[in-house]
């Protein structure tokens, strides 16, 4: 186990030493420089700016962007149009179903009062109407 861990510990020691040296260099700044030579800094930064885009490439990229947005909008509009047409077809089909159902019911499913039950009073002041209905139906008008 010692032979496996010891090399990794030496690598870690080396990395820590490099990190310590780097921090000492950065924190010392110009005061840590010895002698009369004046260096700006032991570490220096370089600022790199992106070159301006070529006008023709920029125009082409804009055309690509506009074209892809236009295509996306056309696809979305087509999707909404198809959905609206489908909803309209469903609405018309539903209306036709209920119109047909009411027409058939009116023609074939008449509600007539049921006859009075046996033994019901039929004399003066008696209720001569039934609370029940007889449903008479036929399928002659169905298609």
From TrEMBL:
Compartments in which it is found: Nucleus
Keyword terms: Activator, Nucleus, Transcription, Transcription regulation
A Pfam cross-reference name: Med17
A cellular-component GO term for this protein: core mediator complex
Superkingdom, taxonomy of origin: Eukaryota
A GO biological process held by the record: regulation of transcription by RNA polymerase II
A single GO molecular function term of this UniProt record: transcription coregulator activity
Subunit relationships: Component of the Mediator complex.
Family: Belongs to the Mediator complex subunit 17 family.
Functional note: Component of the Mediator complex, a coactivator involved in the regulated transcription of nearly all RNA polymerase II-dependent genes. Mediator functions as a bridge to convey information from gene-specific regulatory proteins to the basal RNA polymerase II transcription machinery. Mediator is recruited to promoters by direct interactions with regulatory proteins and serves as a scaffold for the assembly of a functional preinitiation complex with RNA polymerase II and the general transcription factors.
Protein name in UniProt: Mediator of RNA polymerase II transcription subunit 17
Organism expressing this protein natively: Hebeloma cylindrosporum
